[in-house]
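My current task is to audit a protein record that another person submitted. I have pasted the whole thing underneath without changing anything:
***
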Amino acid sequence: MLTIFAMPKAFRRQIELIQRNAIQSWTVLRIHPEVILFGEDEGTAEVAREWGLRHIARVARNDSGTPLLNDLFAQAESKAAYNLLCYVNADILLLEDFAAAVEQVAQQRQPLLMMGQRTNVDISEQINFSRPTWEQELRAKARTQGQLGPPNAIDYFVFSKGLGSNLLPLAIGRRWWDNWLLWHARSHKATVIDASQVVLAIHQNHDYGHHPAGTKGVHDGTEALRNRAMVGEWYHLHTTEDATHRLTPKGLKRRYGRPWLVVKRAWSHPRGLALLIFKLLSRPFRRKLPAQTADRT
């Protein structure tokens, strides 16, 4: 039914504990997903071998050594056993409500992309997945100690094969790539589903010691600025609020009101607003141009 793929960091210290927790949570899901770990960072091949997961070492990287979105997703699509894929950051715990959501959206019209907000939780110990109550305990901890992440921080994407093709070479793990990916899906007429109401995606809090400049380097460094330049205009940056549908306890519901959201954002981007209006008004004429050109030849 589903191929999950990820690009773990080096398995060291706190990150090793977090990533082992996350990856094992995927392997015990009742839908029995195929799991592919990408990359050559320390410990990735060993963990894949330990748990019988697929491992693909080579992924295109930028000059800072950060993996690139376009190659990672293209390889995943070409290697996946299933037509429904999920990219997930290697610090995210997925529970059975995620499996139920996947089963539900798999029946919907294609193409589609499902994502949702995360809940940030401090987890400092290895989870014992052999305990029958491990999931209930995690849910209780998230409910009492967790903090809901913002709608622009997206850590998992369930998507139809094909939506991972022809992507920009954005740096994974730096700002903006996730928001652009949502816009990309909508621009390809995909059904974009916000599953925040029904999926508890637990983000295990950690530091940013893997980057020489720490948190600032990840969020505002050269790679993030490069991502932002490639993304282009402000309306290419979407959040969970831009979803076409919500997955709720009562099923899939159409989401309305996005035009007002766009107008609200546009007021803070006057140049981008003018360009957007021009593109919308000129669309009928641009559609006629190829036919007119063909008539002259």
